[in-house]
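Many introductory courses stop at the sequence. We go one step further.
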Amino acid sequence: MTILPATSKVPVGAALLAGVGAQFADDVAYFLLPPTALVAPLSGLIALLLTAAAARVVTRNRTGAAVARTGLVVGAVSAGVGLFVAGLGFLTLVLAGLTVLAGVAGAVAGRGLTSRADI
């Protein structure tokens, strides 16, 4: 039995752009469309949803382990940018952890990826 290596290259540029974009897209919406500022208290949750959507978009042509790894990179970049901008408060750290999970979940959810057990 031969084990073939799985390619799991992560598109770094696209992941960085998606992570930063997910973190700042709601701010741009508040600037361009002032009535959307009414949902400003929910911007942390909006950033979570945008991170999941961005991870889904970046991983659309990926397969295997590259899907989860790319989602992890998108989530980590988005969380890092959020921590840099908002500071290191308790709620910010909780949202950063959820943002990393949202990146992986957004990339993996609904793809039908299952583990193979050829035992």
